[in-house]
Amino acid sequence: MKETAIFAGGCFWCMVKPFREYPGVISIVSGYTGGHTLNPTYEEVCQGITGHTEAVKIEFDPESLSYTDLLTIYWQQTDPTDAFGQFEDRGDSYRPVIFYSSEKQKELAQKSKQDLIDSNRYTDPIVTKIEPASEFFEAETYHQDFYLKNPSRYEQSSQRRKDFLENVWGE
């Protein structure tokens, strides 16, 4: 049995590797969701004309890795206080969103968000949205597993994120 989780947290290039490292993750696909255009392209999404955000769709084995575990990983990859993008990626297509596909996922996402608020880890408000999943469109092939195909460019594009996360969460 497998389940699906969809998370948006800025550039999808930076959202694949952190999840890939966990046993129980079956696949991760970079793509676009939450918009109003069918089959959007990267260029259209970046122009902000489709309403989509870059996201990752994760298929996982809940017997090995729970949705709650994935939520914990998610919070440790994003700046949940920034509604207008993530790190050097600015704009609506980079907004942080947890897309739920069931009432159980919605409840767990809301609880994890409240737990993060209650932790007082951040002084600014937690603004990450929790929204129902909508159609997910797979990104172009060159975006899939970008960190493996272009490691130096991936490192460059993810340095601000790494620095921020180490400051908030430690190593």
TrEMBL record:
Pfam family name, one: PMSR
Annotated catalytic residues: 11
Signal peptide: none
Catalytic activity from the UniProt record: L-methionyl-[protein] + [thioredoxin]-disulfide + H2O = L-methionyl-(S)-S-oxide-[protein] + [thioredoxin]-dithiol; [thioredoxin]-disulfide + L-methionine + H2O = L-methionine (S)-S-oxide + [thioredoxin]-dithiol
Molecular function terms, GO-annotated: peptide-methionine (S)-S-oxide reductase activity
InterPro entries for the chain: Met_Sox_Rdtase_MsrA_dom, Met_Sox_Rdtase_MsrA_sf
E.C. code: 1.8.4.11
Keyword Oxidoreductase: yes
Keywords: Oxidoreductase
Domain called Peptide methionine sulphoxide reductase MsrA: residue spans: 4-155
Function as written in the Swiss-Prot or TrEMBL entry: Has an important function as a repair enzyme for proteins that have been inactivated by oxidation. Catalyzes the reversible oxidation-reduction of methionine sulfoxide in proteins to methionine.
Annotated family: Belongs to the MsrA Met sulfoxide reductase family.
NCBIfam families in the record: msrA
HAMAP family: MsrA
Name of this chain's protein: Peptide methionine sulfoxide reductase MsrA
Name of the gene: msrA
